[in-house]
Amino acid sequence: MNGIHLLLLIITAMASCDYVAGQTMTTQLIQSVVSAQPNENVIVSPISIETCLALAYLGAESQTAAELANSLALKNAGDKQSAAQKFGKLFEKTKSVGSATFRLANRIYLDERFHVSPKYNELAVNQMHANAENVRFADATATAAAINSWVEAETVNKIRGLIPANSLDANTALVLVNALYFKAKWLNQFSNHSTAKREFHTSAARKSEVDMMKQTDTFLYGDFKELDATAVEMKYLDTDVSMLVLLPKSVDGLASLEAKLKSVDLAKLSAAMRTEEVNIQLPKFKFEFDLDLKPVLAQLGVTTMFSDKADFSSMLAEKENVAVSQAQHKAFIEVNESGTEAAAATYLKIVPLSATFAQQTYQFVADHPFIFAIKDNENVYFVGHVTHF
Question: What is the pTM of this model?
């Protein structure tokens, strides 16, 4: 694509937000990203991706705005004020309480030739706290270093080198960035002394040795016959966020389970679970994942913003036609005895064109591929699966 570019970068470090992520986005990510990569460990953040798309939506018009509004499950494509307020409420949870840390930040990088329009400034800057900063994209190395430094600071160095210098040039107009970070301890922590080596069955024919954490305590537990899976939910300390783990009953059951989840709201699944005494055995894991968002967004009907028909006429004060040239997402997660820490990043480049008590102890042994979701009762912040070590 020729012309002046705009990048959208979304950085998420295990997130906890107050926006209800649309089931459309969560389901789409499970179906088109998570389940589409059965041999890879995957983590994506619906909230982070939606927040960055919202920044783009606030500057969009016509078909571009309509497609973005639909992907964001907004009822009225033209009501940008309400959308900005809805996403702006995310900042109400950007605080640290006790041992739990939550950080959310938006940033707009503009080439020195451009300025955001007053209308966009009111919505994106004032409502969504997306501070605008002028840079010189022609100096790609220095500008990429500055953006990456900001990302690293916001994600406590969990997301490094998000944007390569060769992604920027004199034609870049804007880079929109969202950073989201969360770290918390388990309400019921695992003992380091209980962690031991155990086999993890990647498939019926393959296995490897992992560090398996172990504890017995009361947790939300569910046996879902229609999913052919069991589930356990582990709460974090000083926050309403928890981790839901869905375990297929068969070693090779992950693909079947993910196919069935297209009709399941993971955020609401807890209501069908009960408090039981559970012996949990869960492997420690740590990985990062990179994703090109273009194919995912295309499946959601978001295509115009990548074409010469893109309309971001409300974004810049200058009369310059721009389109999105890149949309990337990067995520990181670490789960260990004390708790969870995760990070993710996404960028979009836009270019001007030319309770009951347990009666028994249930066994939950995650020794084969499983799904995880970081959630509360309303929202899914991260979703992914672990398939190998």
Answer: 0.85
